[in-house]
Design goal:
Strand order of the largest sheet: 3-2-1-6-4-7-5
Distance between the termini: 78 Å
Number of domains: 2
CATH class of the largest domain: Alpha Beta
Helix content: 40-55%
Mean pLDDT: 87
CATH topology of the largest domain: Alpha/beta knot
Shape: globular
Number of helices: 10
Largest sheet: 7 strands, parallel
Low-confidence stretches: 179-187
CATH superfamily of the largest domain: SPOUT methyltransferase, trefoil knot domain
Length: 269
Amino acid sequence: MADGDDSALTGLMPAVILSHPQMGENIGSAARAMKNCGCSDLRLVAPRDGWPNPAAVAIASGGSDLLDKAAVHAATSDAAADITLLVATTARKRGMAQIEMNPRQAAAAVIAHHQAGGKAALLFGGERAGLDNDEVALANIIVTVPLNPAFSSLNLAQAVLLMGWECRMAALAACDGHAMDDILAPDQGDHKLAEHGTRAFFYQMLEEKIASGGFFTNPDMRPVVMRNIKAMFNRFPLSEQDIRTLHGIMKSIERSGKAIDHADDSDQA
């Protein structure tokens, strides 16, 4: 790749989703970090102080063009609707059945996923509390950073720079012809990877079906159980065909249940 030419990396770098960011200055600093690393797709979820924010522009320096074209969404699920590999950064383990990686491993997975035709995003939580459990459940990969356990806190821009740098180094290695990790980057063939919007619709249908069947014996545990179910499915790079098959399975089970109920009614008659 020629000096000053970043075009070869354009299609390999992930989108960056900032969920519920608070201060405009932190958004601007994150945009500057993105620009340093060659990331260009910034998505904001319900920024606390509204958008656009002059404080973000003032500190973004050369990254202000990313702010100009940043997409604003009401919910994290909306921001990730077209994403096929979502990587969430969190400082604490959540007890969900997701793949856990360090930043370098996750970056390799992101670049390999893009090489296979997918679309990846890095998800960062707000300054005060980070990501909530429902947002973490959306992710395919959870990233924790093995920093000094006595002081492991990073600010938002630092976290974006760290992940962006690792993705850039993995992308540069890919452009130089080095072998990449193929985690979560299957040979798609004729199967298009399922976007998170497609998965979200499936989860909604699944929850409705199993709720009507009495699966949630303890209503108070329903949100926790659904988070665990989502995390279980999100460990795998499901294709659009996989989701259609799962919908078909649900419909078949529903028809079978109705047929059994009908047969019971006939016997009683």
